[in-house]
Amino acid sequence: MHPATATGFAALLALIALTACDDAADQASLPRPAAEAALAREAKSAAEAGLRQSLNAAVEIGEVQTFPQSAPGSMAVCGQVALVGSGQAAPFIAIVNRQPDGSLAVEQHVATERASATRVFVESHTRCVASAASGQQRTAAPPRLPVVPTDLATLTPAPSAAVARIEAEQQTVQGGAALRQAGNMRAHPNGGGDVVRVVPRGTVLRIFAEAPGGWLQLGATAPEGWVHASMITRTGAPAPAQTIATASR
């Protein structure tokens, strides 16, 4: 190949490679402050979209702040979320990481019951602070976290379509259940529903429906709430067969 031709071909390859750079490469070429600002905008949008999807309802999102993390391409999004019209707000945190292909991976936590509320509280005090982006090595033990409050705010997500259908349909009594231990009866079969009441050990109730995850809808004469199957023993003789409309929620 003629030297001039080879030089021209190499230049053409370089031009093609340059024009083929995707958004991820463009982001990587930005100065750190500009790259962080771009990631903050995308992370906020991704977190808000994830909240609407996971809570299966129209939501109001406020007090949103973003905090760069020590790892490059990592951002914490913190704020408050409430179901529209409920007047009940709870904190959330989303950890957003840019992947090598330019996409975003979102790890999201919402305070819907005690365990998740505690995690959001701890993660927020660790990540939603200006010092979270510090790349310096710790020379001493990290500071102790504040004591977790006993009255952490939570919200109850809307039931899934499958659960709503179960609760709306008429349920036929499927048998009986005796509580092996005292346990919480919840409004929804997801472990995060409000506690309707605490059922004493030895109580015998009727089973009206079953939901994924091992949840049983129980009640004395009508459906009252959901209890996990791990806490009950099915009675040998089913309760008298009857059809009762689910009335509780």
From TrEMBL:
| Protein name according to UniProt | SH3 domain-containing protein
Ranges for domain SH3b come to 183-232
- Keywords on record: Signal
- The question of whether Signal is a record keyword is answered with yes
User: What single Pfam family name could you report for this chain, choosing any that match?
Assistant: SH3_3
Signal peptide interval: 1-24
Regions that span the bilayer = none
In which domain of life is the source organism classified?
A: Bacteria
